[in-house]
Design a protein that fits this description.
MtN3 and saliva related transmembrane protein; transmembrane; Monooxygenase; about 80% helix; mainly alpha
Length: about 80
């Protein structure tokens, strides 16, 4: 693993981890009043496209970050629909 891939993994970890507090807070409070379904849906589509791109270029940091972020965004969209 070279330094560029390590840098990518660190960046992937930080940007993916940024969603965890929001997912936890939404799940705990069951409050989605201030969550934009449109924003999360558009972001999810973009992240899924990044995931496909990462698979095509065989980039572990891109695949991991966008795979995990996709799962977190799907949870947010589902909670938005459920707790509406």
């Amino acid at each position: 693993m070279d330094s560029v891939e390590i840098l990518g993994l660190i960046a992937a970890t930080l940007t993916t981890a940024a969603f965890v507090p929001q997912v936890y807070k939404t799940w705990k409070n069951k409050s989605v009043e201030d969550i934009s379904l449109t924003m999360y849906t558009v972001l999810l589509i973009g992240v899924l496209l990044w995931l496909v791109y990462g698979v095509n270029i065989n980039s572990l940091p891109v695949i991991l970050a966008n795979g995990i972020t996709s799962a977190l965004l799907i949870l947010m969209v589902l909670m938005k629909l459920k707790y509406k």
